[in-house]
Structures are given as structure tokens and as C-alpha cells.
Amino acid sequence: MQVKICGITNGEDAYAAVDAGADAIGLIFFAGSKRFVDEQRAAEIVAQLPPYTSINALFVNPTQAEVQRVLAAVDVSQIQFHGEESSEFCESFRRPYVKSVPVLDESRMQSVIADHTKAKAYLFDTYVPGEHGGTGIAFDWTKMPQKNIGHRILAGGLDAENVAKAIRIARPDAVDVSSGVESRPGIKNHETLERFIAAAKRAGRELAL
Length: 209
Prior knowledge:
- The chain is built from seven helices and ten strands.
- By secondary structure, it is α/β, with parallel strands linked by helices.
- It has a single domain (2-208), classed as Aldolase class I (TIM Barrel, Alpha-Beta Barrel), CATH 3.20.20.70.
- The strands form two sheets. The protein has an eight-stranded parallel beta barrel with strand order 1-2-3-4-5-6-7-8, surrounded by four helices.
- Helix 6 packs parallel to helix 7 (190-208).
């Protein structure tokens, strides 16, 4: 079970996440987020991390220039799109990308998936009007589409107490958390972060048995 810690805003939290076993960190380049970082700050964070850490750059309806500016400054492993970006736009950067899928009715979710067939994975998150993740609100995990669509990432309202149950129900390939391991927006609680990662990894091993 892979784990991504999103909404990282400082090097100390980034290193703590990786040290606790996180496979990836997420840096948010959306100015409307409480966890926004600019490319200079992001580059400083990434410079402190071990070489095999996956660095994910998150955008919401960016311009081409905004994405290119980040890619030029930060050693990004893959891009995560959380808006209404077209497949042509997502593919234009020639980087692996993850497409966020708001959990609504099945037909609307399948439409997003069908429009982004080259996505490396699909991230399923709670639909909250006007928000783009980080709400701390969970959705009905039984609504998670099945594996025949490709790699699936579970997000939305996860924390150290519920992540094992969420994994058992949704059976994702990875989990993504932000607010569920924070002391306040953008600042991670290292003890909670460690418990979350341990619980997710343990649940993943149990699924594999």
C-alpha cells in the first residue's frame, strides 16, 4: 500500500513523512489552497529529501505557463490535476500524471476516467462544491470504482483511525492524506503522521495475504 502525504509546506514535515515510510509527498501550487507553496519554497523542500522520493505537483485549472514554471524550478516526479483539465492539456507536459475524480454518480466518474485514459492513476476524492481536496470529509468508500479502470488512489477524510477500514472496503492501490495528519492547515503532526502511515501499510499487507 503506497502512501502519499499531501499539502507539505516545509522541509521538516517533508522529511518526517519520508522517514516514517511515505512513498510520496504532494506540493500544492494552487493559490486558493491553505497549503499553497510557490516554486522557490517547493524547490527548497525537495532539495532536503532522499533521491527516490516521489514528488507530486498539484494544480487546479492552471495555465500552461504556470505548470511550466514549476517544472523548470522543481524536480517533479509526476503532476496531479484537480480541476477540469482536458486530457490534451494533462498530456502536453510529457510527465506522468494523476487525475482527480470527484466522487459523484457513477456515470460522471466514468466520464472523467474515459476522457483521461493515459493518466497513470485516478485519485478519488470527496466532492465538495467549490473545494478541490483537503476538506477532511470522507465519501462512501463502497462507491470507489473497481480495479479494471487502472491504478486507484483513495483520498478524502482519511486519518489514522479510519484508514485501515477505508482500505479494507475500497481496496485502493494507494492512499493520499493531507488534513487528517495536521495540527493546523499546512503543518503536519509528526506523531499522527507516523500512526497513519503505519496503519495504512499494515492494512495493505493484510489485504495481500
